[in-house]
């Protein structure tokens, strides 16, 4: 729980604040971009939320924060309960953002797909009663797709509770050595109707993306939307092999999708044609920087 005594001086005065336990994971800035901003090595409140919508978003950020670094001087129980009830948060067409990001994955986002052939969890949030019950109401979890070794978090607990199949690539299998299904090689693998695993090594040896319904691409730490520069981005630090990463980004040009749903970084919806143009631009930028490095 956030401590007012450790309130960062970069917060503006008012009810909501961030304390010094912040790990700067970006979750709060994604959920409540009008209220939270990055200041140096931390996030902080740059604008106190006003009105029902902004207050709801700020409480969603409070709940999603993986280390509990967001607090209030005077709580609003009704608003907090409304924020709790909003998770998992609908993105579109049976796809949900889970919330309750986990410190074990440095605050990475996780997602849920309500699918007629069995529901999917993509990476793992914290194992919390609220999400367990929400997933139960939606029919449980049949499959847990792990984009890479860093964002496994509490996948084992969800798998045990729901009897779900955990899926991970051979390159990152050390993170879940008892996974029920292991993807091999570099070729895309159909996993279910409208669900395709696409190996995209680079950030880690076993990084994978998941393409659902030719519209939603779940990318883990491989690809994201850079809101500041209004373009797609990809990791430049903590990269297993830079040239392999560029090849993996280029591989995605063969697919059509409208959404990028990332573990870290913003999610974005564009037309499939604009997404392809953005992806091509990222490939070209990375090819230049890779040659120069």
| Sheet/helix structural class | alpha+beta
- Name the beta content range: 15-25%
What integer value in Å does the Rg equal?
19 Å
Number of distinct helices: 7
Name some characteristics of this structure.
single chain; 293 residues; alpha+beta; Alpha-Beta Plaits; Metallo-beta-lactamase, Chain A; 7-stranded mixed sheet; 19 strands
Task: Describe the model.
Helices cover 26% and strands 24% of the residues. By secondary structure, the chain is of the alpha+beta class. A hairpin with a 3-residue loop joins strand 14 and strand 15. The chain is globular. The strands form five sheets. The protein has a seven-stranded mixed β-sheet, covered by helices on one side. Strands 12-13-14-15-18-19 form a six-stranded mixed β-sheet, with no helix packed on it. The chain has helices at residues 27-31, 51-64, 77-85, 129-137, 155-162, 242-251, 272-292, and strands at residues 16-18, 36-39, 42-45, 70-72, 89-92, 95-97, 111-113, 120-122, 143-145, 165-169, 181-183, 189-192, 195-199, 208-212, 216-220, 224-226, 231-233, 259-262, 268-269. It has seven helices and 19 strands. It has two domains: 4-84, Alpha-Beta Plaits (2-Layer Sandwich), CATH 3.30.70.20; 87-292, Metallo-beta-lactamase, Chain A (4-Layer Sandwich), CATH 3.60.15.10. Helix 2 crosses helix 3.
């Amino acid at each position: 729980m956030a401590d007012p005594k450790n309130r960062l001086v970069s917060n503006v005065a008012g009810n909501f604040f961030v304390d010094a336990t912040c790990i700067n994971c970006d979750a709060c800035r994604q959920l409540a971009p009008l209220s939270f901003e990055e200041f140096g090595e931390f996030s902080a409140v740059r604008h106190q939320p006003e009105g029902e919508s902004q207050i709801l978003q700020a409480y969603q950020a409070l709940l999603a924060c993986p280390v509990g670094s967001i607090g209030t001087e005077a709580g609003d129980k009704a608003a907090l309960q409304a924020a709790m009830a909003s998770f998992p948060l609908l993105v579109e067409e049976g796809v949900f953002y889970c919330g309750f990001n986990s410190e074990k994955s440095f605050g990475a986002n996780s997602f849920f797909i309500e699918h007629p052939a069995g529901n999917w969890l993509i990476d793992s949030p914290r194992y919390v009663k609220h999400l367990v019950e929400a997933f139960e109401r939606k029919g449980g979890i049949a499959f847990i797709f792990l984009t890479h070794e860093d964002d496994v978090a509490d996948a084992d607990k969800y798998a045990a509770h729901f009897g779900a199949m955990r899926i991970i690539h051979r390159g990152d299998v050390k993170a879940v050595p008892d996974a029920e299904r292991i993807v091999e090689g570099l070729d895309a693998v159909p996993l279910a109707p409208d669900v395709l695993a696409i190996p995209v090594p680079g950030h880690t040896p076993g990084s994978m993306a998941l393409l659902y319904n030719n519209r939603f691409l779940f990318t883990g730490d491989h690809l994201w939307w850079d809101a500041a520069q209004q373009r797609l981005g990809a990791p430049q630090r903590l990269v297993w092999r830079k040239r392999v990463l560029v090849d993996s980004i280029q591989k995605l040009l063969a697919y059509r999708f409208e959404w990028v749903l990332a573990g870290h970084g913003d999610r974005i919806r564009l037309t499939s044609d604009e997404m392809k143009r953005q992806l091509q631009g990222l490939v070209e930028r990375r090819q230049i920087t890779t040659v120069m490095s």
